[in-house]
């Protein structure tokens, strides 16, 4: 025991000035990066918090400078739901966004698969046509399209002029899916064909299970685009209040309650909430699908 106590103790390792400087620099970089992250999070989050808090204020307090409700008026949301036509706007928006998303995915996947995995004359030209369609603003062709749907097919005042074209594919969805399918090795497709699978069976049994992140990204893009679409319903459904969507109906609601900012904010929260919830639960597949589309060109 005495020998152990008498053994000399090793001195603590000395930290050089360069190491202290490196650690201090790393700490400052960590603080700076996280400070910027917190600032960016607050920049994007605070407007939603402001809208939510205002939606729970009384009529008079919503016109004041107060930021926190004195009394939490949850009945504002009930008043919004009781507004004539609001539930109809919800139904129309769900039909437009839900049916449009399904039609877009079903029609875009086969085209993207052909552009990604088939070898045929004119494939590059077909891809260039798809890309050119992405660059064409909808406002350029809105007049002939409106004359076709309204005068020729008599579908004005409905959402069908917006839903039916989605059954024939969407240029952005085709391009995004094609880029994702390019990341799937051709060996899987060749192995399936060696086992006797045709092109359709290979697509359904081999390619689609591997392409779920890309399909999820396309579906979310289309769902968000349809849910927030204001231009299309304004052109085709404005003359029929029974065909209005939430985006267009919210403008009418705001005009009718231009001094009731609490009710306007409550309606805004109800319009935004489904999109936020959908993205919150599907963000992993969405980010993965968007990220992998640029792996291979």
UniProtKB/TrEMBL annotation:
The protein's matches in InterPro entries, at most eight in alphabetical order, are given as: MetI-like, MetI-like_sf
Q: Which GO terms describe its biological process?
A: transmembrane transport
UniProt subcellular location: Cell membrane
Can you supply one Gene Ontology CC term for this chain's record? plasma membrane
> One Pfam family for this entry, by name?
BPD_transp_1
Where in the numbering of this chain does the ABC transmembrane type-1 domain appear? 90-282
- Chain segments annotated as transmembrane: 30-53, 94-115, 127-147, 159-181, 202-224, 261-282
Superkingdom of source: Bacteria
Its record classes its membrane topology as: Multi-pass membrane protein
The record's keywords, sorted A to Z, are:
Cell membrane, Membrane, Transmembrane, Transmembrane helix, Transport
Protein family: Belongs to the binding-protein-dependent transport system permease family.
Q: Which PANTHER family match?
A: ABC TRANSPORTER PERMEASE PROTEIN MG189-RELATED, ABC TRANSPORTER PERMEASE PROTEIN MG189-RELATED-RELATED
UniProt-recorded name of the protein:
Sugar ABC transporter permease
Instruction: Name its species.
Output: Streptomyces diastatochromogenes
């Amino acid at each position: 025991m005495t020998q152990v106590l008498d053994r000399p103790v090793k001195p603590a390792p000395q930290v050089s000035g360069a190491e202290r400087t490196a650690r201090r620099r790393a700490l400052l970089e960590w603080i700076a990066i996280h400070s910027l992250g917190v600032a960016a999070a607050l920049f994007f989050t605070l407007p939603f918090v402001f809208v939510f808090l205002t939606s729970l204020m009384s009529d008079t307090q919503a016109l004041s400078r107060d930021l926190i409700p004195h009394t939490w008026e949850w009945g504002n949301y009930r008043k919004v739901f009781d507004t004539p036509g609001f539930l109809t706007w919800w139904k129309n928006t769900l039909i437009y966004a839900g049916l449009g998303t399904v039609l877009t995915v079903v029609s875009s996947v086969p085209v993207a698969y052909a552009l990604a995995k088939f070898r045929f004359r004119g494939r590059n030209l077909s891809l260039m046509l798809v890309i050119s369609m992405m660059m064409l603003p909808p406002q350029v062709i809105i007049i002939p399209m409106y004359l076709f749907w309204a005068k020729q097919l008599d579908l004005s005042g409905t959402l069908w002029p917006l839903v039916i074209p989605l059954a024939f594919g969407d240029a952005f969805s085709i391009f995004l899916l094609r880029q994702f399918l390019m990341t799937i090795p051709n060996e899987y497709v060749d192995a399936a064909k060696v086992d006797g699978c045709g092109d359709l069976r290979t697509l359904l049994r081999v390619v689609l299970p591997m392409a779920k992140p890309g399909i999820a990204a396309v579906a979310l893009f289309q769902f968000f685009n349809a849910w927030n679409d204001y231009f299309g319903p304004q052109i085709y459904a404005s003359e029929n209040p029974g065909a209005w969507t939430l985006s267009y109906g919210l403008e009418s609601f705001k005009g009718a309650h231009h001094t009731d900012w609490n009710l306007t904010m409550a309606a805004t929260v109800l319009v935004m909430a489904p999109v936020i919830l959908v993205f919150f639960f599907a963000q992993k597949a969405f980010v993965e699908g968007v990220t992998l589309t640029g792996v291979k060109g």
